[in-house]
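Progress narrative, work stream C.
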Amino acid sequence: MAESKENPPSYPTISRRERKKRETRRRILEAALALMAKRPYAEVKIEEISAAADVANATFFLHFPTKASLITAFNEEVAAKIADALATFKGDAVEKLERLRTMLLDEWRKHRNLMRQLVTEFVAQPASMAAFPEVNQRLVDLVADVIRAGQKSREFDGRLDPFIVGLSLVSAWNAIAIGWAKTGDTEQATEANRQALDLVLRGVLRSKAAA
């Protein structure tokens, strides 16, 4: 039945102000990534990023309190890209987690030099651990969504909290990223990343007793 004029359909929308804010934030991030792809992280000044993004320095700090906080935006962009890919992915929950893992690694490799510098700078911040939930919220939510779907399809143990599973996996991946930032050993990080997923899966797959 068609919606009446008195009761129009309700769709999630964002205000023009919020849309403009997101566009500015993305423009700053893209400008920073472009500059840092050509020169070392430490040599790129905030004034240069602001100029390349065509914003005032104050606008940069409005969106990013520090240069290291660019990693939060990077994670959000990566999570959004992965979410779009998973939305049309036809595999089961285990295959979705593997797809998520490989896409995350691909993004790390694509920006390996910048990522190593950002991660090193981020962990050096005194409040970095307190900021962990904010920095990784989108990735944690994304993993939790896959776990939740797997529980619904009875692939995964329904007794586990999807958020805790997501937090555990993303925390492990971030710990691996910190080690990778220090050593630069991409092969070892890739294998550790895969093992972390295997370890979590052994905990969430339904046992015969729970079937």
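Work stream C, second folded protein:
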Amino acid sequence: MTAKSMGPNDAILMEKIAERVALVTINRPDARNAVNNDVAVGMEAAVQATEADPDIWVVILTGAGGKAFCAGADLKAVSQGGRGTLGTPNGGFGGFVHQPRTKPWIAAVNGFALAGGTEIALSCDMIVASEGSAFGLPEVKRALVAGAGGLYRLPRALPKAIAIELILTGEHFDAKRAYHFGLINRLVPAEKLMEESLKLAGQICVNAPLSVRSSLAVARKAYDHTDAELRKISEEAGLKNMQTEDFKEGPRAFVEKRPPRWVGK
């Protein structure tokens, strides 16, 4: 599949790069893939397109050019009073950080992921990063607040003291340190970034897609509910999953000693 422009221009590109796997690329390398209105509109369109396509089970998100995953908000747009154009009503910043999604997203971070770039990466379900990449929430250095989820998602992803230090100092932290503290799933040389991201996506795609989505939906709520509430949510997810065709196919394939044939129904 040839890369398709999402939105009014080529700020966001989407293509199918493997069976069941789509690649979404923030395509503003000259601006270090900073978020402007075109990016926000295109990202929202990309989420909607991947959600609607039954042949896409996992999405990889990356930035063009190799130097930056995303440098956050386009400060030129902010300085001109255009901060309201950096998001969408449903998706929030970048058309993404609050956008409802049922399918797993993997951030393939190449280079800097700063400010809103870190927040976009944190909004994904997993992160694969190149060894030279770096993260950070430097908003306090510009009298801003990281209002796109970073102030609560980073403390969930890192030890509290480390997260607060990074938030209050605004300093960068490199991928090696991020990997040490469990912020990212895989740390690889830059030339292996997409290969490793595809490998992770492939490991997910061998599983029943509806089971994956149901499990992901519960896992995403782990910090938002009590154990009793989560038990009920899990039970409901399990009962709903039992109504699918794939629920019957899994045990049948095991008994027949063959790979399962998932239909996503």
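The mean pLDDT is 93. No further action is required on this item.
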